[in-house]
Write a structure and sequence with these properties.
Layout (H helix, E strand, L loop, with lengths): L6 E4 L2 E4 L1 H20 L1 H19 L5 H25 L8 H27 L5 E3 L5 E6 L1
Antiparallel strand pairs: 1-2, 2-3, 3-4
Protein name: Transmembrane protein
Keywords: Membrane, Transmembrane, Transmembrane helix
Length: 142
């Protein structure tokens, strides 16, 4: 069972709630938005916390959670990794380069994160029946 997934025992068995899946799918995008809007010190903390969020949600019983988490992670790690590599060549002594890098990162991450959040909240998220090990029962929707 995943830490961020709420499942509960019911008369018909264990159920992963659709509302929980929707929240889990959106979590990585919300973290990206907050980290890019308030970069000091949240960007550094989110870089570490995002790895935990990714690890917990990538193999969620609802595969859409894993998909949205993976897409948000690709964007976040791609942008931050690119700017870490580029920062090696940024001339010292001026904040203008750092500000320009932050603006470019925000222009990439913010629209895509908002677009993903809109997709997540427009989709229907059904409850999923789980077996004893926490895997979805094939074709079973609560």
């Amino acid at each position: 069972m995943h830490l961020l997934e709420q499942s509960e025992d019911t008369i018909i068995g264990r159920v992963a709630r659709g509302s929980s899946a929707k929240q889990a799918a959106a979590l990585m995008n919300y973290g990206n938005l907050v980290a890019i809007l308030i970069p000091f010190p949240l960007l550094i903390f989110w870089f570490g916390a995002s790895m935990l969020v990714y690890a917990l949600n990538r193999h969620h019983p609802d595969p859409r959670v894993g998909h949205y988490t993976q897409q948000a992670a690709y964007r976040f790690y791609g942008v931050t990794g690119f700017f870490v590599a580029v920062a090696t060549f940024i001339p010292g002594g001026g904040w203008i380069w750092h500000l320009a890098a932050w603006i470019v990162a925000a222009l990439i991450l913010i629209p895509w994160s908002i677009l993903d959040l809109r997709r997540i909240y427009r989709e229907g998220w059904a409850d999923i029946l789980l077996d004893d090990e926490g895997h979805p029962l094939l074709g079973a929707v609560a």
